[in-house]
Specification:
With 657 residues, the protein is an alpha+beta fold. It has 20 helices and 25 strands. Helix 14 (415-459) packs antiparallel against helix 15 (466-492), helix 16 (504-514) packs across helix 18 and helix 18 (540-556) runs antiparallel to helix 20. It is elongated and about 190 Å long. The N and C termini lie far apart (129 Å).
């Protein structure tokens, strides 16, 4: 059978390794009868039997066949058995072929010794015992078969080893080619790459980019360079060699984080590098070295330094100034940003600006990025959130530096401006409505006087019976109510140029008359306690505005109904002389939460969401302070209910300007 050899070698013929394949047994005797008897005895073995009647014929069979054992007669003409055995032993191929001598004549010990000296493995005398002969021949036949199988397997193993060696050679060549390719790639990479060889990093090699970064020749040992060169970590202070990424990866057996450090080669300017490393392991899992990557960020650091120097000039500015990269990571955060947003510089730097501030531009963050990329700048309003959770609106101006590596943003809080504009628009609408109401009331007042006179004449006309007179009197009373409401409406919009004497109780009653319907609709029980009329000098329309705001707030605080108490009394000094008027307006509504109490009188602060402007209490407090008075409140929250009371204190003798 043929087998493909390794390249460059001739085909090799293999002997079959089938364990049942018969082997060749050569029987040599000059007497055919004996050969026939041997054939009968050995036939049971199932082997291939060859007969030879002379030494020459036996030699011819030996040369043509692979003989396992030779059964040979000693006494033969021409060439006897001893001579044939000697001839076989002289041939390299037959030196180990087993020979069994069979003899009926040469039976002395000398003959046996001569036979063994000729290379015989056994000497059998005649008559032959069949069982003994079969047993002895079968042993040598099986031994030959096993030897042949072993020789075949050994040869096959040699072929396999040769084939595997050729495969390994090819793989080794491919591996060397890949290594050469990787080395070429590493040399042309613009990123510095270093490899630490050995668990102690005694040898560190780098590519051309890294050698250029650190000012060394390609192939120099970077380990010695690290020992000789002072290194400074980005956080400040000198960095130890074991703190470097390669050494740290080898010591810990884990990938390192990104480290920033500064190197100062002799006679050269300092370089800023970003580096990280991962350990390399051998087949046993032990650290055998490390590989590291180095990025030169000197230009970026210089740009950040220049931007920081410029931004430091703006530290005193009220605007929030920040520097971020295109991904949104904050690199600089000035004092104005700290004051506006509430996060300190240490808390903000490194955070994503869009996520930290929850920026919500009208058309999305992508609009800003696109404008910065295409035009280099963007301006607009942003809704953002402070650290305390308050939402603000800022006017933002953003500009991208060359290459879009960094983005400068200047933000100014315009929340108060927008609220003031909205409040101004509302107040203008209210003022217009008030002016219109005053005009309407003024126009209605003139015909009301005529109608009142007509009803007076009608009521006293002699043609009316008692029932008609009663109806006329009722109509006259209702008309008087309409006239009173008209006059009150006019009084709200008639501004006094100077302070005049006013009675607080009368002002409150006027306000309550206008609020009578909301009180009834809201199922609110009104309780008035006037211990004094409370005469002071002031501006009636402004004071009415204060009382109207406080009463309206109290009504709105009790949507499910409740109780309102209004108390007016005078406070005296030690001599019993009245010094000021105290007004208490209390309600049993939901109360004021503690977190809202400190901001209640701030402009634009409201707990009514979209229903209020947040200016009512702020304006009311300003009016009371204009009258040299005070406006305070107290709110008690409890499980059984809540009570909120506003106290106004107005001096009696003071005259506001």
């Amino acid at each position: 059978m043929m087998r493909e050899p390794p390249p460059g070698q001739p085909p090799v013929t293999l002997v079959s390794t089938d364990p049942r394949e018969p082997v060749t047994i050569l029987m040599v005797d000059d007497q055919p009868s004996k050969l026939m008897s041997y054939e009968v005895i050995l036939a049971e073995l199932g082997e291939r039997l060859i007969k030879a009647t002379s030494g020459r014929e036996a030699l011819d069979h030996l040369l043509k066949s692979d003989v396992a054992v030779v059964l040979m007669d000693v006494s033969m003409p021409e060439i006897d058995g001893f001579e044939l055995a000697d001839m076989m032993r002289q041939h390299p191929r037959f030196q180990k072929t087993p020979i069994i001598f069979v003899s009926a004549v040469h039976l002395t010990e000398v003959d046996r010794i001569r036979g063994y000296q000729s290379g015989a493995v056994d000497y059998i005398s005649v008559p032959v015992i069949p069982e003994v002969l079969r047993a002895k021949v079968s042993v040598f036949a099986e031994l030959h078969r096993k030897t042949r199988q072993l020789r075949s397997l050994n040869h096959e193993l040699e072929l396999r080893v040769a084939q595997r060696s050729e495969e390994l050679k090819l793989l080794n060549e491919q591996l060397q080619q890949r290594v050469a390719e990787l080395e070429s790639i590493m040399q042309v990479l613009p990123v510095g790459v270093a490899v630490a060889h050995g668990p102690t990093c005694e040898l560190i090699t780098g590519n051309a980019a890294l050698s250029e970064m650190v000012g060394l020749k390609e192939g120099d040992n970077l380990s010695q360079w690290l020992l000789d060169l002072p290194l400074h970590a980005a956080t400040g202070g000198e960095a130890a060699q074991q703190q470097m990424p390669l050494q740290d990866a080898v010591l810990t057996g884990r990938p390192t984080g990104t480290m920033e450090f500064e190197i100062s080669p002799p006679g050269e300017t300092a370089h800023h590098l970003l580096a990280s490393a991962s350990p390399l392991f051998d087949e046993g899992g032990s650290v055998r070295g490390a590989v590291g990557v180095f990025f030169d960020v000197t230009d970026r650091k210089h740009m950040e330094l220049a931007l920081r120097e410029r931004a430091e000039l703006l530290e005193l500015a009220s605007e929030a100034i920040m520097v971020r990269d295109p991904a949104g990571t904050i690199r600089f955060w000035n004092a104005g940003a700290e004051a506006l947003y509430g996060w300190s510089r240490e808390e903000a730097i490194g955070q994503n600006a869009h996520e930290l501030l929850e920026s919500d531009p009208p058309h999305g963050i992508a609009t800003i990025s696109r404008a910065l990329e295409e035009q280099g700048r963007w301006e607009g309003n942003l809704r953002q959130r402070r650290k305390d959770g308050d939402e603000i609106v800022v006017a933002s101006r953003q500009a991208a530096q060359a290459g879009h590596a960094t983005i400068l943003a200047i933000n100014r809080d315009i929340t108060a401006e927008l609220l003031a504009e909205e409040a101004l628009r509302r107040n203008e609408r209210l003022a217009a409505m008030g002016k219109l109401a005053g005009i309407v009331a003024h126009e209605i007042n003139n015909p009301l006087e005529s109608i009142t006179n007509l009803f007076y004449l009608l009521r006293t006309h002699p043609s009316l019976n008692e029932e008609a007179i009663c109806y006329a009197e009722l109509a006259d009373q209702e008309l008087a109510r309409v006239s009173h409401i008209t006059k009150q409406t006019l009084s709200f919009y008639r501004q006094s140029q100077t302070a005049v004497p006013v009675f607080i109780s009368d002002l409150i009653d006027n306000v309550l008359e206008l609020q009578q319907r909301p009180l009834q609709m809201g199922n609110i029980k009104l309780e008035k306690r006037y211990f004094a009329k409370g005469m002071i000098h002031g501006f009636p329309s402004e004071l009415k505005q204060v009382f109207m705001n406080l009463v309206s707030n109290a009504i709105q605080a009790m949507p499910e109904g409740g109780r309102m108490r209004i108390c007016v009394k005078e406070a005296t000094d030690f001599n019993g002389t009245p010094v000021d008027v105290r007004i208490y307006i209390s309600d049993t509504g939901g109360g004021i939460a503690p977190e809202h109490a400190k901001r209640l009188f701030e402009p634009f602060f409201t707990t009514k969401s979209a229903k209020g402007t947040g200016l009512g209490l702020w304006i009311s407090r300003g009016i009371i302070q204009k009258h040299d008075g005070t406006l305070r409140f107290r709110s008690i929250l409890g499980n059984s209910g809540s009570v909120t009371s506003f106290q106004i204190s107005l001096p009696i003798g003071s005259k506001p300007g």
